[in-house]
């Protein structure tokens, strides 16, 4: 019987594995890494959505200016996406060419025309509440703006 206990002790000493403390340390380290990685990932997604709506405004500028050139130097009528991500088709004048403004998923875009001036405003629902506005009157680049400027979207 004494010999059986000795064999069991020897077998127990030769078994290797992780202690409970080592496993807890690994779990804590993984938890810390996840706590750091998730907010960073969400910021990347919001930034990508914001850049997407900003890019849509730039694309709309090109479409509106192409429309102006192809349709006897007149701007199209004001338009807005029917739903986020829906494209806008600018109907052609007689003898002119229609243009389509392609809009990214989640982006709501507005085109407001007043005489020889126009404004293009956009926001993406997946991004931070960042509004993008461009007016041909002031020219320049697409700029981040306030909700009030987006709502009025004045050329």
Automatic annotation (TrEMBL):
Q: Which UniProt keywords apply?
A: Membrane, Methylation, Transmembrane, Transmembrane helix
* Subcellular location field: Membrane
Could you list the residue ranges that cross the membrane?
Answer: 20-42
Q: What is its main location?
A: membrane
Query: Known Pfam families for this protein?
Result: N_methyl
Stored InterPro entries: Bac_GSPG_pilin (IPR000983), N_methyl_site (IPR012902), Pilin-like (IPR045584)
- How does the entry describe its membrane topology? Single-pass membrane protein
The domain of life is: Bacteria
The reply to whether DNA repair figures as a keyword in the UniProt entry is: no
According to its UniProt entry, the protein's GO biological process terms are: protein secretion by the type II secretion system
Q: Which PROSITE patterns does the annotation name?
A: PROKAR_NTER_METHYL
Cellular component (GO) terms are:
membrane; type II protein secretion system complex
**Mind telling me which PANTHER family this protein's record contains?**
GENERAL SECRETION PATHWAY PROTEIN G, TYPE II SECRETION SYSTEM CORE PROTEIN G
Q: What is this protein called?
A: Uncharacterized protein
Instruction: Specify the species.
Output: Spirilliplanes yamanashiensis
């Amino acid at each position: 019987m004494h010999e059986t206990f000795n064999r069991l002790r020897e077998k127990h000493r030769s078994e290797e594995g992780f202690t409970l403390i080592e496993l807890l340390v690994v779990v804590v380290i993984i938890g810390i890494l996840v706590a750091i990685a998730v907010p960073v990932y969400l910021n990347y997604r919001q930034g990508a959505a914001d850049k997407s709506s900003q890019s849509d405004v730039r694309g709309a500028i090109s479409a509106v200016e192409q429309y102006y050139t192809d349709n006897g130097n007149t701007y199209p009528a004001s338009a807005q996406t029917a739903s986020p991500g829906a494209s806008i088709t600018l109907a052609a004048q007689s003898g002119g060419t229609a243009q389509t403004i392609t809009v990214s998923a989640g982006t709501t875009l507005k085109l407001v025309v007043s005489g020889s001036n126009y404004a293009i405003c956009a926001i993406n629902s997946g991004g931070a509440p960042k509004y993008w506005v461009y007016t041909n009157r002031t020219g320049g680049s697409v700029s981040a703006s306030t909700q009030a400027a987006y709502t009025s979207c004045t050329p």
